[in-house]
Design goal:
The protein is α+β, with helices and mostly antiparallel strands. Helix content is 70%, strand content 14%. A two-stranded antiparallel ribbon has the order 1-2.
Length: 71
């Protein structure tokens, strides 16, 4: 099931994985960016952040959205 919404002039698409995993991913993203901006995380830490983001469901969301674009 896919939900679509119009935000400003941009279309956003949410799928089931986004509904169940997005809050966790968004929190991870916010925490990493804050650490980066405060100098607590470095460019070298970015790869670990991306891997964690993918492991927590980001890879699933990316794959589902890519599949939707093909349909």
């Amino acid at each position: 099931e896919i939900a679509q919404c119009l935000v400003g002039s941009e279309m956003c698409i949410r799928d089931r994985s986004m509904d169940s995993k997005w809050a966790t991913l968004e929190k991870l993203e916010d925490e990493f960016y804050l650490q980066y901006l405060n100098g607590e995380a470095t460019d070298d830490d970015f790869d670990a952040y991306v891997q964690q983001w993918n492991d927590l469901g980001g890879a699933d969301i990316t794959a589902e959205l890519a599949e939707m674009m093909v349909e």
